[in-house]
TrEMBL record:
Listed name of the protein: threonine--tRNA ligase
InterPro entries: Beta-grasp_dom_sf, TGS, TGS-like
Catalytic activity: tRNA(Thr) + L-threonine + ATP = L-threonyl-tRNA(Thr) + AMP + diphosphate + H(+)
Domain TGS stretches: 88-150
Native source organism of the sequence: Cucumis melo var. makuwa
Classification via PANTHER family: THREONINE--TRNA LIGASE (PTHR11451:SF46), THREONINE-TRNA LIGASE (PTHR11451)
GO molecular function: ATP binding; threonine-tRNA ligase activity
Family that this chain belongs to: Belongs to the class-II aminoacyl-tRNA synthetase family.
A cellular component annotation (GO) from this entry: mitochondrion
GO biological process, one term: threonyl-tRNA aminoacylation
Length: 199
């Protein structure tokens, strides 16, 4: 079952990176992040196939720090790769025609939101760069048209609901027992957003 979940994780990583966003670049995201993450998942899958571990406190106290360390090492390598990329001035066009200056591979939609107002920076959930949904903390890569969405927009609500569904999905995954009710009923969650006409 665990090996199946690892395979599913590999599929979801590939699917979500292609779904609504474009990669940073072949060098930065596809070649670095996905390759590192795929290799680590493959190694984890092989380790679990070699030996099964009980999901007790001892196992978790050993495993969780390793996972955190793995995340931090991949994050550090990604940040190092990003800092080595060329940075030069770019022009960011807002929906009202206002032009903002930024730095390639450094300025993020969140940085632009902070320049506009603290309220917008606190409430913006997702950005759109040249028509493509874009994480608020993801650096801009070129001259672009930028839109920012809060929960008041369809894009903002869909992003919030979709992210929340993934968090609930993690709670529902073994070995978490939070969703098991006293009378042995098990909650079930769907990760894909519900079509607007069915809400």
């Amino acid at each position: 079952m665990l090996c199946g979940k690892i395979w599913k994780a590999k599929f979801l990583i590939s699917f979500h990176c292609r779904r609504k966003t474009v990669p940073y670049s072949n060098h930065f995201l596809s070649s670095t992040f996905l390759r590192l993450l795929h290799n680590q998942l493959h190694n984890t899958q092989a380790a679990f196939m070699a030996a099964k571990h009980p999901k007790d406190e001892t196992y978790l106290s050993t495993t969780i720090p390793k996972r955190i360390q793995l995340f931090q090492s991949i994050q550090a390598q990604l940040l190092a790769d990003r800092s080595s990329l060329p940075s030069h001035p770019i022009k960011i066009t807002l929906p009202d025609g206002t032009m903002k200056e930024g730095q390639k591979w450094k300025t993020t939609p969140l940085d632009v939101a902070k320049e506009i107002s603290k309220s917008l920076a606190a409430n913006a959930l997702i950005a759109q760069v040249d028509g493509v949904l874009w994480d608020m903390s993801r650096p801009l890569e070129n001259d672009c048209e930028l839109k920012l969405f809060t929960f008041d927009s369809d894009e903002g609500r869909d992003t919030f609901w979709h992210s929340s569904a993934h968090i609930l999905g993690q709670v529902d995954s073994p070995p978490n027992l939070f969703c098991r009710l006293r009378w042995s009923m098990v909650a079930s969650f769907a990760l894909d957003p519900v079509p607007l006409e069915e809400r």
